[in-house]
UniProtKB/TrEMBL annotation:
Ranges where the NADH:flavin oxidoreductase/NADH oxidase N-terminal domain occurs: 7-336
Gene Ontology CC: one annotated term: cytosol
Pfam families in alphabetical order: Oxidored_FMN
An MF annotation (GO) of this entry: oxidoreductase activity
Lineage of source species: Bacteria, Bacillati, Actinomycetota, Actinomycetes, Kitasatosporales
InterPro entries: Aldolase_TIM (IPR013785), OxRdtase_FMN_N (IPR001155), Oye-like (IPR045247)
Name used for this protein in its record: Alkene reductase
Domain of life, per lineage: Bacteria
Length: 379
């Protein structure tokens, strides 16, 4: 029987009350040094009714910073700031993973103070936002084998920091044109050594990062996000390349016993999605394409992906504009419209913590979907 969005689910040692996950959403509300502040505490606590929150991308080292005021997880003050967030979410009944993201070439010295690094010296083919406004991208420095080893270690250390900060686990970001995706894609990885060339070489860095993180904190606490065919940040992947690359990556990772695989812009009718679902032995998190932000459209997308075999559905923009999204979908209530001007990056409370909830409080799930969270957390 196909589960519904209200069907409980066990993710490793973590009991989720339903199937709706808040996707990671970069919002640029951290301090300049990457430390979460009061607004972030409020924002995430507002959305604690998600079955699981995957918190926005946090960098594992200084050179991995993408844009101004994004979060980090490589210094004690970052751990302390995130601990305030996770405490508030847990007090509100929620659960959190933290996404770990290294920007690679998606960075700028005006933001990080450092020259970006990447698999190959191929610059981003577009401008990038910095504290000084949009600037032309710079040519990144090609990572040496020592750089690669150090970065793998940084990811593992960041995962340990995330658990110290109160997260239940981490998601390794291998999607949307950031560093791991840059190693996967042929147009950004022009290496001829063991980390380039063949498909086996191009997936090696991602696999080594995931393996190191799993060894550090336990595979049951680790998810991976991929975006087959997505062209964000200048990535170019042809259909044939994508069809060969991602099954190979799944094959490399599937024996680790990871918490989940998270597929961005999942289409339940696409052959590659169906193949990944068939070949991935564990939990699959699917992030749907949403051409419109309405209750009916979101509910249809959720139902289709659950019917196609995804266990959890990750929603981004709907949670951004609706702190009580789960309640609204249960009631069939209208969703708040997005205020595009404040969609992501402007800072402050407007368009961030001021989206209204329904006035009369949360609706209770139907009696056959009520489940007590037993507190059995993996952290």
């Amino acid at each position: 029987m196909t589960p519904t969005k209200d069907t409980p689910f066990r993710l490793g040692g973590l009991a989720l009350p339903h199937r709706l996950v808040m996707a990671p959403l970069t919002r640029n509300r951290a301090a300049a040094d990457g430390t979460p502040g009061d607004l972030m505490v409020e924002y995430y606590a507002q959305r604690a009714s998600a079955g699981l929150i995957i918190a926005e991308a946090a960098t594992p080292n200084a050179v991995g910073q993408t844009y101004p005021n994004i979060t980090a997880i490589h210094r004690p003050e970052h751990v302390a700031g995130w601990r305030r967030v996770t405490d508030a979410v847990r007090d509100a009944g929620g659960r959190m993973f933290l996404q770990l993201q290294h920007g690679g070439r998606v960075s700028h010295p005006a933001t990080s103070g450092l020259t970006p690094v990447a698999p190959s010296p191929v610059p981003l083919p577009e401008t990038i936002f910095t504290p000084e406004g949009h600037r032309p991208a710079v040519t990144p420095r090609e990572m040496s084998p020592d750089d690669i080893g150090a970065t793998v270690a940084d990811f593992a250390a960041a995962a340990r920091n995330a658990l110290d900060a109160g997260f239940e686990g981490v998601e390794v970001h291998a999607a949307n044109g950031h560093l791991l995706h840059q190693f996967l894609a042929g147009n950004t990885n022009r290496r001829t050594d063991a980390y380039g060339g063949s498909v086996a070489g191009r997936i090696r860095f991602t696999a080594e990062v995931v393996e190191a993180v799993a060894a550090e904190i336990g595979a049951e606490r680790v998810g991976v996000r991929i975006s087959p065919g997505v062209t964000f940040n200048g990535i170019e992947e042809g259909d044939d390349e994508t069809a060969e690359l991602y099954p190979a990556l799944v094959e490399r990772l599937k024996g680790l016993g990871l918490a989940y695989l998270h597929v961005v812009y999942a289409d339940p009718d696409a052959p590659l999605f169906r193949r990944i679902r068939a070949e991935w032995p564990g939990t699959l998190v699917a992030n749907p394409v949403l051409p419109e932000l309405t209750t009916d459209a979101v509910s249809r997308a959720v139902d289709r992906l659950l019917a196609a075999g995804a266990e959890l559905i990750a929603l981004g923009r709907p949670f951004l504009a609706n702190p009580d999204l789960v309640d609204r979908l249960r009631r069939g209530a209208p969703l708040n419209p997005l205020r595009d001007r404040y969609l992501m990056y402007v800072g402050g409370a407007v368009g961030y913590t001021d989206y209204p909830a329904l006035p009369d409080g949360p609706a209770q799930p139907s009696s056959d979907s009520i489940v007590a969270w037993d507190g059995d957390r993996v952290a």
